[in-house]
Amino acid sequence: MNKLSMDKKVAVISALIEGCSVRSTGRLTGVAKGTILRLLAEVGTACAAFQDAAMRKVHAGRIQVDEIWSCVGAKQKNVTPEMAEARLCGDVWTFVAIEAQSKLVISWLMGRRDAGTATEFLQDLQGRLANRVQLTTDGHKMYLTAVPDAFGPTGIDYAQLVKVFGSDPEGQKRYSPAQCLGVTSFPILGDPDQKHVSTSYIERQNLTMRMGMWRFTRLTNAFSKKMENHMHSVSLFYMHYNFCRIHQTLRVTPAMEAGISAKLWSIHDIVALLDAHTSLAA
């Protein structure tokens, strides 16, 4: 069986990272759809394993957490019993934690938007930190139990930032966000610094995510059809974001700013993870 050359693999992964769909990547590179999906699965798995090992004992100061909506297979309201029985589909929320100073995305988890997923996500985040941090989330009630469950009642400085939205005219509700009328911060645990109670960086990260992956774009047919491919795409996206993409403000990558990586990674380095991951698996 013919195998893809390193240059062809780099071309495929580069196109996927730039937000191209699987079919457009095939047209650009001349690689079959099935081959692209297999390569995505292999690279996504290798990226997830590498970041799981690298994001340990992270020294952080201020953490911002938010969740971003997407869907797999269909929106939740369109999921039939047959679809639900056959595979995991419907609304999927990706919980993301970013360090405000280094812009490093330390942890993420996909699941339902409930206290169970939030607790699992925050417990994973807590296990990756080397020191006490200040945490800011939105006003979702699930965090009121998830944060103390993960960090304990005295192990974190935690505040919520609650935004008050107005009601927009009927014609604008579908395509435009509601108008923000005000913002209020509420200290929940510890002694959070009110000057740094913010979710601006994680909300900007959500925009970067939507702009970088068609799978997260609203009002389109580019949503993921399988949960596995959805997860692999997110792993690849954050590998590139943390290790390859130079932040315009920092002038280095988030991983370099956080002291996790001493070099600027390339797409070739990401593809090369395949060999290391295969060796470990063997």
Describe what you observe in this structure:
The protein is α/β, with parallel strands linked by helices and 282 residues long. 42% of the residues lie in helices and 18% in strands. The chain has 10 helices and 6 strands, in the order αααβαββαβαββαααα. The protein has a 6-stranded mixed β-sheet, with helices on both faces. A hairpin with a 5-residue loop joins β2 and β3. α5 runs parallel beside α6. The radius of gyration is 20 Å and the shape is globular. The two termini are 21 Å apart.
What is the strand and helix layout of this fold?
Elements lengths: L5 H12 L4 H8 L3 H22 L7 E11 L8 H6 L3 E10 L5 E7 L3 H12 L7 E4 L4 H10 L5 E9 L14 E10 L10 H13 L14 H17 L10 H4 L9 H15 L1
Parallel strand pairs: 1-4, 4-5
Antiparallel strand pairs: 1-2, 2-3, 5-6
Report strand %.
Answer: 15-25%
Give, in order, the helices and strands: HHHEHEEHEHEEHHHH
Q: Give the N-to-C terminal Cα separation.
A: 21 Å
Helix content range: 40-55%
Short précis:
By secondary structure, the chain is of the alpha/beta class. The chain has ten helices and six strands, in the order H-H-H-E-H-E-E-H-E-H-E-E-H-H-H-H.
Features:
alpha/beta, 6-stranded mixed β-sheet, 282 residues
